[in-house]
Batch of 3 targets.
Target 1
Amino acid sequence: MRVSILGAGAIAHAHADAVRSLAQHDGLEGVELTGVVDVDPVRAEEFAARHGVARHGTDLAALLATGEVDVLHVCTPPSLHLEQARAALAAGVHVVVEKPAVLSLAEIDALAEAERAATGGARFTQIVQHRFGAGAVRLRRLLDEGALGRPLVARCDTLWFRPPSYFEVPWRGRFDTEGGGPTMGHGIHQFDLLLSILGEWTEVRAMAGRLARDVDTEDVSMAMVRFASGAMATITNSLLSPRETSSLRFDTERATVELDHLYGYDDAAWRVTAAPGSEDSVQAWADDVAAAGEPVDGGRSGHLAQLVPTYRALVGGQAPPITVADARGTLELAAAIYRSAFTGEPVVRGQITAGDPFYDSMGGRGAPWPPVKDVPAQEATA
């Protein structure tokens, strides 16, 4: 498969490194990074030189018109994702997009329609690499097998720090260009992993605030979530936390399973504590580690761990492991957090539909604090 990357910013390098490593895995020997497009021709040229890419340019339409792209990795600001993904799908090109996939439930539904109408069965998928680290795969498997008992209580914290200068980039800190604050742009990876472990949620109660940053969005949010299984969890998303950490804790009937990392984890980041009388739960975790052999990328939760099964699915003509429906489920939880925080009311799953202001924007009719930015739309999306 011939792969091109759209957008040559910082995250694109992680995509390029992972794509170039795919050929080392069985069945993916023919995957090749062949092109890069960026609005800045110098940046595109420098990216191509660094990663040994044969073709670089500034025009996505021209690239797609060549017919020499099988997969497009979209690494541009979130407000551009929908139209760029639509263009690729219409050209019969598979799309791999960075998070968040799009800015709203309305846009993810439009994207689903674009995939249904795609030429040649082109597929869409979103990067949610934390689902694919060896520890997360192991936790899901042991819960499915009953080795840990039922999940009961969970905590999901994304406690990061972004200084005021971070928001000097015009498209950051705006609902219309970034989709939201740390709930959409930062914590979404952690609570996506939470959802992959605990399954369908049923009710959310939340608060959000703009406490210290010159933004239109929140800079912190907190939520309480009830799941269909009966399990309950808290979610905190912050950009105001000097000692940065990303952490999840799952208390099950037979063990506590904890993950502490920052931007990515390996097996050493996990800890299992048995409940009294259930010491075999720790042994079950250890036995699974031993039986798994050598996981992809050493068990780390990087892009490669997700792209290996993703490309194997695409090569085989199958749906990727993360579908539009998966991306929508996580976006619906984000929308529910915003709706509950901004209205002061609980939100149940399925409540936010067409006609609800939070269906069209995570900000609904606007945050309960005055806007602070006045940036022309063309500058914000440049």
Note: Confidence is low (pLDDT under 50) at residues 375-382.
Target 2
Amino acid sequence: MALALRSVPQRLRRGAVELSRRRRAVVGAAVDDARRRTEQIRRRLAPITDTVTGAGWLAGVLALVLLVAGPLLRWPELVAAGAFLAFALLIAIGFVVGRQPLVARLDLARERVVVGERANGYLMVTNPTQRRTRALSVEFPVGTGRAVFDLPPLDPGAVHEELFAIPTARRAVLDVGPVVAVRADPLALLRRERELNELDQLYVHPQTLRVDGSAAGLVRDLEGRTVPKVSDNDVSFHALRGYVAGDDRRHIHWKSSAKTGALMVRQFEETRRSHLLTMVSSRLEDYASDDEFELAISVAGSLGTQALADGQQLTAASSHGSLPAGGLQRFLDGLSGLSYDWRARRLVEVTRRWGHDELSASVMVLCVGAGVSITDLRQARRQLPVDTRVIAMRCLVGAEPSVRWLGDLAVATVGRLDELGVAVRRVSA
């Protein structure tokens, strides 16, 4: 009875977390849909909306209201205030009109770093004209943030240099740039930008570690291992059968045919080379926290990195589709940009819709969070080939490492990335 009472708050907390994550997914999908529907309108209004700031819109609306309300209320002070705001907007136009003849160069020390590593950059702004430029601000986006530098007046041919550091606390694909020269009035009513260079990108790769005895190594078959599937064309001989029209004559066994008086052809057992599939669920509701999602990506990245280092074939996927896995750099770049998919389907539906490339894997590792139940994992396993080894990695931050066997499905729990090696050794034992 006491145990049941203690579990009630836990169920309530779990239900509250699930409700919060589901609400976040619904809101995210609605915002994305609204952006898609208003994309054309926003593009047409961009010359105005990109120039007038929030303060400018407020000043314009107030000026209009005061100029209309003043005469109606016979209050000359309101008219004067409205005229002042309108005059301020007219004066602001003079600050943003004009050319910005500058050339910028933005260099990153490294275009790819691991979470937590230092990322540095170098900015050089040059005045290529024959006249002195006035002081202004130079800005460029860094992911969701923005770097701002005050540029002093530059003489003809002068160069201004800046060194900067980029925070890499979380995995991401950061858009660095383009560098823009900004002209604005002192009251920040209007703001005009001019791009000085092109966009660059910084890939912040997830944390990975070397896994001894990786999941790809669970299939120890450098020359291929046989599976209980009969094939008409392979290297592992299985049996003889009667010739059927259309069979390859190269597989006719002439000695047996001579003994039986009928054409006999060879049958083979299908062989498979080591082929690892790493799948990361990108469904928001499948995780109790963002840290679980990051741990799942690090687990998939570690296993995939080890498979590529061992020369194994790798396929990577998420809930919304395939991820690049043609090489180590492309694989980690794909994981760097992986985010929640608001319309992602449940794990069972994802595995049911997998194509030939995914289903041809000899080992599948499903990286999920606390939102995926054991029942979901069982149902997902039923959608996969019976001759494929399936391992579910439940990434629960802070949990004790463990391994459960549900028939031919191995369910490993990982609480920290450095516990991945222990989980792999237990699964391969």
Note: The first strand starts at residue 103 and ends at 108.
Target 3
Amino acid sequence: MSTKSATTATELLPDETVDVVVVGGGAAGLNGALMLVRSRRSVVVIDSGTPRNAPAEGVHGLLGADGTPPGELLARGRDEVRRYGGRVVSGEVTSVTAAAAAVHGDPRFTVTLAGGHTLTARRLLVATGLHDVLPDIPGLAQHWGHGIVHCPYCHGWEVRDEPIGVLAVGPASIHHALLFRQLTDDLVYFTRGTELDADTRARFAARDIRIVDTAIEEVVAGDDGAITGVRLTDGTVVARRVLAVATTMQARTTGLDGLGLPMEDLPDGMGRRFVSGAAGSTDVPGVWVAGNVTDPMAQVGASAAAGALAGAHINAHLATADTDAALAAARQTV
């Protein structure tokens, strides 16, 4: 199995218009591309090489691939897309614009990469993913993906029975705590200035979840670099081996402003995403979105499935456009 990454943007980028440019080389983008190239569509995937799950040791909850390192899974995906003639290139998209006039009603988009390379596409699949914004707590960020986790389904089994602390960021953290309580008997909930009503405190007490209302000063690590606890503003250190926190999830939008894709805020300040309809369709004709960029809670399997569905939908849309063009040409000939 090849583990080579995406090649550079200078790798024989096509001069002709391609059927689809996929912006984002993660699970959603690659699975969408796979569906398209297997339908004999010309596809170029632009991969920035910065997947959200890069710090994780393995992908979990994905049938048949549980525990596979993220980099290995994506390398397999790139090889599969290339096997059917798709191109996967490394690069950053700096701008995407729609042509002022469609070609016989068929949309056209110009995709510009860092360095000035451009591509023209009939359709776009945006699968840029998201970035996680952590609370501004000294010592926290450097442990992201290891001692700092966010998803009980992605990392829960791996931290089972450890002393876990939940860092509250808002109302969603209450449910977060109940999910992590399933994984350990030793759970501490740091309120961090958020409100807990009497009923919630009673429910936590019934589940033996300890509540700490004192503010956090910093995350403490040992000589081996692993988390050992949380220091509070009163000087107390609460020993913990793992900290769970619900991040603010922001869709990656770099280079996409020119499309005017509609966005919306997530509830309780949890982040921001692209708005999508059936199969990832958007209000912008010819543009689909898939994966974490529109569904921030989706794990790898769900993101890949969304990409596959969007890819199939794009192919069907192109098939209709191809037929319309052929019919128009035939009528013109007559």
Note: The longest helix spans residues 300-333.
